[in-house]
Specification:
The chain has 270 residues and is α/β, with parallel strands linked by helices. The chain folds into two domains: 135 residues, Bordetella uptake gene, domain 1 (D-Maltodextrin-Binding Protein, domain 2, 3-Layer(aba) Sandwich), CATH 3.40.190; 109 residues, 3-Layer(aba) Sandwich (D-Maltodextrin-Binding Protein, domain 2), CATH 3.40.190.10. The chain has eleven helices and 13 strands. Strands 2-1-3-12-4-13 form a six-stranded mixed beta sheet. This is Phosphate/phosphite/phosphonate ABC transporter substrate-binding protein.
């Protein structure tokens, strides 16, 4: 009998956060009566390899690659950040960060300097950034003197800004809030210069091989999670207010942003 795995790598920003995710998934799986084995999958192992596994039972995945279809998955539910800018929705943004001592005061001040991005299948680290910069690029042409891509993770962006190898980069806003909670020493040296528009939040997904009845029970258990007595301490630990059921169409915004940039000839941020 196939055993299915769970993982929260995208937002396991620190051991404390991963422990909270693991506990939350265990509660949801228990209520759904779905057997899941939590499998750690630390960076820098490539997420696309994880997402293509046939034994996914409950694994976090960015909405842009869900929409792009880089792996065959079934979206289940997305977290609702308990952050004012999320407005009670399963939505997130990218914070465009600079060093705290940067002279930049507006996004335009950063033009002509050094930009970074994560990977081309990332929404927060690539697609949202490109969408945000598109009108400026259309008005001015190339915006940055140098672009450093393939920094892979949000932590890669944070470290590159802090060490001065890039001047500005996109940081998943929910990831930013979590890392500021658990490792405030890492965020003390940065500030947010600008923010992108909101987009659909990354979701927990399953492989198509997970029985459809199990998929349905997981979806229902996530939807009811916020009402359960075990949820408040975990929700507080993870800065979430609950979960919203999702399907592939929930992430159409990411494809629209991609299409607008590609049709304009703006293939990559820069």
């Amino acid at each position: 009998m196939t055993r299915f795995i769970a993982n929260a790598r995208m937002y396991a920003v620190a051991p404390e956060a991963e422990a909270a995710w693991q506990a939350l998934i265990a509660h949801v799986a228990s209520e759904a009566e779905v057997a899941l084995d939590y499998m750690p999958y630390p960076a820098p192992k490539p997420l696309e390899d994880l997402w293509r596994r046939p034994d996914l039972g409950c694994v976090q995945m960015c909405g842009y690659p869900i929409a792009l279809g880089i792996a065959e998955v079934v979206p289940i539910a997305a977290p609702i950040p308990a952050l004012p800018w999320a407005g009670g929705h399963a939505a997130y943004r990218s914070d465009l960060i600079v060093r705290a001592d940067s002279p930049f005061r507006t996004l335009a001040d950063s033009f002509g300097h050094r930009l970074g991005w994560t990977v081309a299948h990332s929404h927060s680290g690539f697609n949202a950034l490109r969408h945000h910069l598109l009108p400026h690029w259309q008005a001015r042409g190339p915006l940055y003197a140098a672009v450093r891509g393939e920094l892979v993770t949000a932590r890669g962006i944070l470290d590159a800004v802090l060490d001065g190898s890039i001047d500005i980069g996109p940081l998943d806003g929910y990831w930013h809030a979590l890392i500021a909670r658990y490792r405030p020493d890492l965020t003390a040296g940065i500030r947010v210069l600008d923010q992108t528009a909101l987009a659909p939040m990354p979701a927990f997904v399953a492989a198509p091989g997970l029985p459809v009845e199990d998929q349905a029970r997981l979806r229902a258990a996530f939807a009811l999670a916020a009402s359960r007595p075990w949820f408040p301490p975990l929700g507080q630990a993870l800065l979430i207010a609950g979960f919203s059921p999702v399907d592939r169409s929930s992430f159409a915004t990411t494809l629209a942003w991609d299409r607008a940039a590609v049709e304009a000839g703006y293939a990559a941020p820069g």
